[in-house]
Amino acid sequence: MLLHGKRYTRREIEARVGRIEQLGGIRRHTLAEGIESGTSILAVRTGAGLAYDVTPDKGLDISAASFGGASLTWQSANGDAHPSYYDDQGTGWLRTAAGGLFMSCGLINVGSPSTVDGIAYGQHGRAHHTPTKQIAAESVWAGDELELRVRGVVEETSIFGGHLRLRREIRSRLGENAIEIRDEVENAGFRPCPHMMLYHFNFGYPLLTEATRIAFPGGRVTPREADVPLDGYDRWEAPSAAYEERVYDHELPKTPDGRAEVALHQPHFPLGAGHSAPVTVRLAWKTDTLPRLVQWKMLGAGVHALGIEPANCGVEGMAAERERGTLRMLEPGETVRYELKLSIE
Containing H/E element for 11? Predict the structure, then answer.
């Protein structure tokens, strides 16, 4: 294990601490105020500067995330609202969406509210507001490396409707500043089922300032609205109360390793005691199952967030996806796998 610039064996590390959580690990908390009351948190610390909160009550998504004590993410004013407050009608999702490092959008609908075959689907689907079952949170030695693992199962079901089952595992290692997300979505039903999936990563201040530079994978970039200028999609700016959100679709080029990456470089990331240093956050994913990238740029005062959103679909909703002939259908028993990795250097 490489920790604080020096390599140790497991026994050398264990000889230096009373319990390994002195350095890092996983700890469970329960929030106790307002609409967050009752929401559980699995707080993960890697011991190398990266810390993040996994939310079992909200699809096993990741809420707050920080590096060296400074935030990496945008946090919604809603906070980690308990899923009992979720309104699945229309755009009710916006009232309880947490923001944070990422929110799972899907599993059946993504994007705008949609009505298909007489069934109404709310904005961005139910995954982010569905409590997880079969939760496991453990620290496991693999030789001289301590792996921090969180896993669980999220299901979207309806009598006479679809039955999709998400098995999620989130991994980090003590001494490393990285998060791996490994998801499997299975059609546990006996009829084909629509499957739309989008990982809504949300970055914010102080990772994002006017000095931040954003590197996209390349390829054609298309604004959602025809009157939105293309210039500036890869720059960050100061907040403006009058700013209207912008959404861009990025065409992902084919790469030899079948992966895409977005990098955010902050030359003056705060690391405490008045010090700062260059920090680069990289988000990479496999494009065979997440072939699309949506960018949400929102410079509005009080929001000021950048959404980087690998997906298997667009954000216009199921009806639009079906009309285009691009709606992903999972056959009975079929499984699709997603892999993403966030790293800090």
Answer: helix 10-14
309, with CB counted inside 10 A (0-12, 13-18, 19+), is: buried
Strand partners, 98: none
Q: Which two tokens stand for residue 81?
A: 């609202």
Dist. CA 180–CA 98, nearest whole Å: 20
One-letter amino acid for residue 140 of the chain: V
What phi and psi values does residue 36 have, to the nearest 5 degrees? -85, -10
Residue with tokens 């109360």: 241
Please spell the DSSP secondary structure of 244-277, one letter per residue: PPEEEEEEPPP-TTSEEEEEEEEEEEEEETTEEE
Q: What is the pLDDT of residues 172-213, one digit of tens each?
A: 999 999 999 999 999 999 999 999 999 999 999 999 999 999
- CA distance readout (Å), 89 to 36, 92, 121, 321: 21, 6, 7, 19
Residues 60/102, Cβ–Cβ less than 8 Å: no
Q: Are 187 and 328 in contact (CB under 8 A)?
A: no
Taking the complete model, does pTM exceed 0.85, yes or no?
yes
**86 close to 35: Cβ distance less than 8 angstroms:** no
CA distance 266 to 73: 13
